[in-house]
Write a structure and sequence with these properties.
Blueprint (H helix, E strand, L loop, with lengths): L5 E3 L7 E3 L11 E3 L5 E3 L12 E3 L3 E2 L5 E7 L1 E3 L2 E6 L1 E3 L4 E6 L3 E2 L5 E2 L7 E6 L5 E3 L2 E5 L5 E5 L4 E3 L4 E3 L4 E4 L3 E4 L8 E4 L6 E3 L4 E6 L6 E4 L2 E3 L5 E6 L4 E3 L9 E3 L3 E4 L2 E3 L4 E6 L4 E4 L13 E5 L3 E3 L7 E6 L1 E5 L2 E3 L12 E5 L2 E5 L6 E2 L11 E11 L8 E4 L11 E11 L6 E4 L11 E11 L2 E3 L3 H5 L14 E11 L2 E6 L7 E4 L2 E5 L3 E6 L6 E10 L4 E6 L7 E11 L3 E6 L8 E12 L9 E6 L17 E4 L2 E5 L3 E6 L8 E12 L20 E6 L15 E12 L3 E6 L8 E4 L3 E5 L2 E3 L10 E4 L3 E5 L2 E3 L13 E4 L2 E5 L2 E3 L10 E4 L2 E4 L4 E3 L10 E4 L2 E2 ...
Parallel strand pairs: 2-10, 7-11, 9-14, 11-16, 14-17, 15-18, 16-19, 17-20, 18-25, 20-27, 25-30, 26-31, 27-32, 30-34, 31-35, 32-36, 34-37, 35-38, 36-39, 37-40, 38-41, 39-42, 40-42, 41-43, 42-44, 43-45, 44-46, 45-47, 46-48, 47-49, 48-50, 48-51, 49-52, 50-53, 51-53, 52-54, 53-55, 54-56, 55-57, 56-58, ...
Antiparallel strand pairs: 1-23, 3-4, 5-7, 6-7, 8-9, 12-13, 21-22, 21-24, 24-33, 28-29, 80-81
Length: 963
Amino acid sequence: MKVSPVRHNRTISPFKLVVSLSFAWIWLALGLDGKGEVAAQAVSPITTSGLNTQVSAPTALAGGELQHDITGGTRVGGNLFHSFGDFSVPTNNVANFLNGISFDLNGSTLPAGLPTSNILARVTGPNPSAIFGTVQTTGFNDANLFLMNPAGIVFGPNASLNVGGSVVFTTANHLRLGEADGANAGIFHASSSSANILTSAPVTAFGFLHSTAGISVQGANLSVEPNQSITVVGGNEGFEFANPDSGTTSTPVSGGVTLTAGTLSAPGGNISIGSIASSGEISASSLMPSSGMTMGNIRLVDASLLNASGEAGGSIKIRGGSFVIEESTLSANSLLASGRPIAIDINLDGNLTISNNTVPALTALAIGEGSAGGIQLIAKNISAQVATEDFTFALLDTHTSGAQRAGDVTIATENLTVGMADNGAFFIDSGTSAPGDGGNVAITATSLALQNANINSGDFRAIVSELPIDAITGSGGKIDISADRISLEATVLASQIFRGHGGDISLGGNDITLNGSSLLSTSGSFGSGAVSIKAQQFTMTEASQLEALTIFSPGGNVEINTGQLELSDGSTIRTQTGGLGPAGDIVVKARDNVKLSGEEASLRPSGFYSNSLVREDAGPTEVGGNAGSISITTPRLAITGGARVDTTTQTSGHGGNVTIKETNTITIAGQRIVPIPEDFFSVGSDTAGGIFTRTIGSEFCSGSCGNGGNISLTAAQAISVSDGATISASSTGPGHAGNISINAGQQLDVQNGSITTEARHASGGNIDIKAIDLIRVVNSPISSSVQGGPSTAGGNITIDPKTVILQNAQILAKAEQGNGGNITITTPVFLADPASFVDASSQFGLSGTVNIQSPTSNLSGTVKQLSTKPSETQALLQNRCAALAGGDQSTFILAGRDALPSEPGGWLSSPLVMGSGMGQGHEDLSRLTGKQMSEDKILSLRRLTPPGFLVRTFAIGPTGCHS
């Protein structure tokens, strides 16, 4: 029933309700008749603070408690308003709000037992309320109880609640009333001198005229009926209170809302806590403050508990400036039905600080058939420190052990810092230990640092807890972290489902670093998720790993878009399949450079890996999936210290391709320091670093093994392979080796390295090398040789630069029983020393062809290192025979000065064609001598032409030099 708003204001001296007080000057009692109806046995005194509130004398209960019945009050529709001068309840005493007679706004008596929605009680005096006994309601069914005292509220260790509905405790100065559409507005003031507008509307806001006193729960266990709510909204000022048991009058209480070894319990219902440090109003439903308000402090310490767990988990809402959790827990678990989408909602203007070693801080997990609840954290800064060594411990837990999905975890903050024990307990577990799917984890921050702080959205926690995982068949949740700076140290981010599908993992920021053997892993028997990294600088060190693994279904891709990428100390990025499903691709786009370097002494080298491998439980006829491809796009690529780019197939699936493009320079140098077996990648004691595509072969793919992948390198300036490094497309099984295509830009240097497409039982791949200026091979092989049977053949080798220099080098396309490959070298200048050789022979099969098309070759059989101090061109031109002195000769070409070639692409006639000089200065030029060249020597065009094509020749006249 709605009543028109009427201003009600009575200024009367305060009256104190202290249940231990014996009303010696008056004796009254209220009781219940046999039918449970309220029967007035005498007239109770009306409190002098107004609103017709009546308080009975104490009545002894069977259990020894003393009970004071509170009746009367002013009723407007379903709202019943009470007023007290003071309100405190000692231990073993009961303050009982009884649905007896009440009064309307005109003071007329209303009958007992009227339907009631809300009981709203205020305390007008200057003293805090110290509740050490019981507050209860009788005859109101599920009516809600509000208690408002701006001077402060304290719950002692024996305090309890016996209320049919929800309860609200606040130190606000007023309660604002109103309907959802704004109608029936009213206001209920704590001060008896302020004009009230009392209506039947529900409470919509808590109003503060200033920062009022706080609220403290000291060892109390306050609970309400299932599906009801507990709301605590306090100010931020400290205060002192009179202990109703001992009479002590100076017990201090800190400001804000504090639970010390206290419990608030609302099974399946709602728990809301807010702290206000300024004037303004906050919403009664969301506890969100109005604009410009300052929020206060909230503390849960000494094993305090906020418990909204139930058959269907409830919700917990925190609104404040700062929130401290010390060895305490907020729990909204679901036992049979589903939890709330946001079961724990923390929204702070300041900092959230968590320090728990033995108990989780926030839990909204699902135990039965329903879904778990979600957790949302919003704070300026969030920090957590955990010292437990229990690696099954989870600080934030929304996992599911039922058929439905786990809850989501969402965090938004400027700075997130989490440090946990070395064993690596879980910071967040939104995973699953049952058929249900994992929940998603989304973190947004300016700076994020996780140390030994694992995040699980799959079955990883179940695995490390040694729980059965055969029934875990769902999908892993997504892990999405976005921050300007991300640092993961000895931290695992895992979305793995052994018999399901892994979830996606995404990191985005400016500077992302993984160290201390950190791991990013998405995997599942029926497919992995994708991994996405977007950063200006992405660094992985100290054997950190990033992986996407699958068996029966396609694996997810790994995509990295960054300015600079660096992998070192055995850090790897890997995709892999162990069954029919193809492994995902690795796609790297780095705007500045990519650096792969070094190894960890007991692990694999740093680098990129995509593999198709045989599982231990694979059957002999099982078909293998293809390895993924690796694509790298960057201006500068350096692979050093034994690092690798590697695609391998051990099954009937094909090896992946390696493509490196849009680079200026590619540097591949060095090898592993210590050769150790790597059975996982089947490279044995191989120490070489570099680029590999391999088909290994095994008994599981006998006769039908996949072919190795191809390698394609493109650079605008130069490619170098040195110090034991290699570019290799090999086969050690029945599958054919892949091809290698190199476009080195200006030049290719291979020094103490190798480029090979060799095969042991199959055909070798082709090698195609192009460079504009120079290909130099020193102490190195370029080989497409094979060792297989008659049906195998060596791969073809094509080399096409302006100049080829071979020093103790081998160009090989040999075969044992099969046919040798063909070798074609097209170059204006081909220089090979006596220790170098080009060979396409076959021991028992047909030899291949060697075709060297070069107008200029090194006739002396040696290649001489040029002086580091070359002669000045001006001086040499003054003595045109200087180039022929000393006996050692090389080519000197002067183009574009005094003449032009006779046709485009042709050679420029010069008086100095062949020659050598010491280059020590002008004083040595008088000792130079030369030998006259015979006439009509022929120089051909840049590239030799097919037979029958008309070729123009050029005559070279005598130089006039003396021998």
